[in-house]
Automatic annotation (TrEMBL):
Organism: Flexistipes sinusarabici (strain ATCC 49648 / DSM 4947 / MAS 10)
Example of a GO biological process term: protein secretion by the type II secretion system
Annotated InterPro entries: Competence_ComEA_HhH, Endo/Exo/Phosphatase_dom_1, RuvA_2-like
The name this protein goes by in its record: Competence protein ComEA helix-hairpin-helix repeat protein
Residues annotated as signal peptide: 1-20
GO CC annotations on file: type II protein secretion system complex
Amino acid sequence: MKKIIFAILMLLMVCTLAFAKVNLNTASKKELSSLEYVGDAKAQAIIDYREKNPFENIKEFMKVDGVGERVFEMNKDNLCTGNGDC
């Protein structure tokens, strides 16, 4: 019985992490790379952008070099900025 409960808890933790939003202002390069159509180069561009201009809202994501409307649309439900939207 304990093994079943443990397995269920582990599954819930994994599901929670899988559906957690990515904070554009604090996410690691690996976390950013987990977004649709975002590889290492775009992830680094996001990090470089936020060092100079912290994201105030998720639409600013489109200001990053290499990120257009399509990339934004594919990811908008998984993004946040830490300004009360995470």
